[in-house]
Specification:
Layout lengths: L1 H14 L1 H6 L1 H13 L11 H6 L1 H23 L2 E3 H12 L7 H10 L8 E5 L2 E5 L7 H12 L3 E2 L1 H8 L3 H13 L3 E4 L8 E4 L3 E3 L6 E3 L5
Helix pairs in contact: 5-6, 5-7, 9-10
């Protein structure tokens, strides 16, 4: 039964090779079928799936593009980038809109774990963030970023300490660490004279209106 399923899967791969390589919905379906048969099509470059599809090349190219975008934006976002923003930038590089899915990014990063850069995926609140820096978020960092999400991408020490019931030393330490790592930036002209701390990797700026909003997650 397993052999017959693998034969049918190979036939599906051959008949829909172009669609699998070009369309996320076909790739997702292919991976679902592989998972149901306990097959990892990316396990070996010499596997039958590599020979039929060349799918390993697809994820290798995608991995290179993930690294490229993360490195070139690191000075702007401190090494964290929202998944939707990453996909948009990669699709611009490829000049192929709607060609990459969140699942593609997650699979590519899973295969990148051997890299010293330690690329990882962080689910914080309603957003999925890709982290490309070795520093680790502690629980206070995560809670502060999630709090900023609820406020439109920023926080102030006074309001965050009050609403989260944190001591001033705790909010100072967490916010200073986010600043140090380049994950947050300061706006000293905030409302009511309060200093605003923007979490760079979770926001986007409308170039027409200048309005800042939280990036919407695609996953």
């Amino acid at each position: 039964m397993i052999d017959s399923f693998q034969t049918a899967l190979a036939k599906f791969a051959q008949e829909h090779k172009n669609e699998i390589l070009k369309k996320p919905e076909y790739r997702n379906k292919f991976h679902e079928l592989c998972a149901s048969a306990n097959i990892d099509p990316l396990l070996s470059s010499s596997s039958i799936w590599e020979k039929i599809l060349g799918i390993g090349d697809f994820y290798y190219e995608l991995s290179v593009q993930i690294v490229d975008v993360c490195i070139t934006t690191r000075s702007q976002n401190g090494g964290i980038i929202e998944l939707s923003d990453l996909i948009t930038r990669i699709e611009a590089i490829r000049r192929q809109p709607k060609s990459i899915s969140p699942d593609d990014i997650k699979r590519a990063i899973e295969k990148m774990k051997i890299l010293k850069g330690k690329y990882s995926i962080q689910k914080i609140g309603q957003q999925t963030l890709i982290q490309s820096v070795p520093s680790e978020f502690n629980n206070d960092h995560l809670r502060l970023i999630q709090y900023a999400q609820s406020k439109g991408g920023y926080f102030t020490k006074v309001l965050a300490a009050t609403e989260m019931r944190w001591a001033s030393q705790r909010i100072d330490k967490a916010s200073d660490e986010l600043l140090r790592d380049g994950i947050a930036m300061i706006d000293e002209q905030g409302a009511d004279g309060l200093t605003m701390f923007w979490i760079i990797g979770i926001i986007q700026v409308d170039t027409t209106t200048g309005r800042i909003s939280v990036v919407q997650d695609r996953s």
